[in-house]
């Protein structure tokens, strides 16, 4: 199971543009409301240099990163909770998401009469989420972890990302991006979403054949980690061998790490730490 992040905001603030940049998928983007009626869903790799370093030591046949799911949800408008602009449908798409990235427009208005008012835009979205929660009698929408992302090209007043540039650069090769001197902020956003969900990563190296990253809720015990890898590992769990990824890198091999006593034995109550490399024994 991958955790999901809903991308929300008013119409035409750059939601589909961000989604395209994140997933490198071509989606329907246009400067008119409700381009995205059905949500686009994309699975995005969580960047992790630790997995790359572990793989250099293990030299596996396969490297499998962990992922997070992004859901591009169509623009909400004032009155969405009452059905305005297909609002009820769009709000229902937010409910299954584990967290929210709310995009706020801070770039120059495209049409006459449009104002740039981030505070007002945020208030509109917050009101719609709150009213929907009150209507259904719970706090599902307003209680979700949230990241505010200000989409702008010039303002220094807000934490910002130029989503158009990010989307344009996603279509270029790594060499072309380097030549242009562009530094993407997408990795920081992905990691921020990962962190706001209270997630950690542990690793397995499956007999040297595959180096793999796994997602786990912070504070989970090793049985929960075992379930992620294979149901048999949880049911038949005897013990596990665990080493922090840094110590594995320092010793340069699993065998040397065992010989030097850097690998510890963990029982069922062990709480998995971010960066643990684990071998399960059944």
Automatic annotation (TrEMBL):
<keyword id="KW-0460">Magnesium</keyword>
<feature type="domain" description="OBG-type G">
    <location>
        <begin position="3"/>
        <end position="151"/>
    </location>
</feature>
<dbReference type="Pfam" id="PF06071">
    <property type="entry name" value="YchF-GTPase_C"/>
</dbReference>
<protein>
    <submittedName>
        <fullName>Redox-regulated ATPase YchF</fullName>
    </submittedName>
</protein>
<dbReference type="InterPro" id="IPR023192">
    <property type="entry name" value="TGS-like_dom_sf"/>
</dbReference>
<dbReference type="InterPro" id="IPR006073">
    <property type="entry name" value="GTP-bd"/>
</dbReference>
<dbReference type="Pfam" id="PF01926">
    <property type="entry name" value="MMR_HSR1"/>
</dbReference>
<dbReference type="GO" id="GO:0005737">
    <property type="term" value="C:cytoplasm"/>
</dbReference>
<dbReference type="GO" id="GO:0005524">
    <property type="term" value="F:ATP binding"/>
</dbReference>
<dbReference type="GO" id="GO:0005525">
    <property type="term" value="F:GTP binding"/>
</dbReference>
<keyword id="KW-0479">Metal-binding</keyword>
<dbReference type="GO" id="GO:0016887">
    <property type="term" value="F:ATP hydrolysis activity"/>
</dbReference>
<feature type="domain" description="TGS">
    <location>
        <begin position="198"/>
        <end position="282"/>
    </location>
</feature>
<dbReference type="InterPro" id="IPR012676">
    <property type="entry name" value="TGS-like"/>
</dbReference>
<dbReference type="InterPro" id="IPR027417">
    <property type="entry name" value="P-loop_NTPase"/>
</dbReference>
<dbReference type="InterPro" id="IPR013029">
    <property type="entry name" value="YchF_C"/>
</dbReference>
<dbReference type="InterPro" id="IPR012675">
    <property type="entry name" value="Beta-grasp_dom_sf"/>
</dbReference>
<keyword id="KW-0067">ATP-binding</keyword>
<keyword id="KW-0547">Nucleotide-binding</keyword>
<dbReference type="InterPro" id="IPR031167">
    <property type="entry name" value="G_OBG"/>
</dbReference>
<dbReference type="GO" id="GO:0046872">
    <property type="term" value="F:metal ion binding"/>
</dbReference>
<dbReference type="InterPro" id="IPR004095">
    <property type="entry name" value="TGS"/>
</dbReference>
């Amino acid at each position: 199971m991958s955790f999901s992040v809903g991308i929300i905001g008013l119409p035409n603030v750059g939601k589909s543009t961000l989604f395209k940049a994140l997933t490198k998928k071509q989606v329907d983007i246009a400067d008119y409301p409700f381009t995205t009626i059905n949500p686009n869903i994309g699975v995005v790799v969580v960047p992790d240099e630790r997995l790359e370093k572990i793989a250099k030591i293990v030299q596996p046949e396969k490297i499998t990163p962990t992922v997070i799911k992004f859901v591009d949800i169509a623009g909400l408008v004032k009155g969405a909770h009452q059905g305005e602009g297909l609002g009820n449908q769009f709000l229902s798409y937010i409910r299954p998401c584990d967290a929210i990235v709310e995009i706020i427009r801070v770039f120059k208005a495209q049409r006459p009469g449009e104002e740039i008012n981030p505070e007002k835009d945020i208030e509109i979205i917050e009101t719609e989420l709150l009213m929907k929660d009150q209507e259904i009698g719970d706090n599902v929408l307003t209680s979700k972890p949230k990241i505010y992302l200000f989409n702008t090209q010039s303002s220094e007043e807000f934490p910002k990302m130029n989503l158009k540039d990010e989307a344009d650069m996603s279509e270029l090769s790594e060499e072309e991006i380097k030549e242009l001197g562009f530094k993407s902020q997408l990795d920081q956003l992905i990691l921020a979403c990962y962190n706001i969900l209270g997630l950690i990563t542990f690793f397995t190296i499956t007999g040297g054949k595959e180096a793999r990253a796994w997602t786990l809720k912070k504070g989970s015990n090793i049985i929960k980690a075992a379930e992620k890898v294979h149901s048999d590992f949880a049911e038949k769990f005897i013990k596990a061998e665990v080493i922090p990824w840094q110590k594995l890198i320092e010793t340069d091999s699993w065998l040397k790490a065992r010989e030097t006593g850097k690998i510890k034995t963990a029982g069922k109550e062990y709480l998995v730490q971010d960066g643990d490399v684990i071998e399960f024994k059944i």
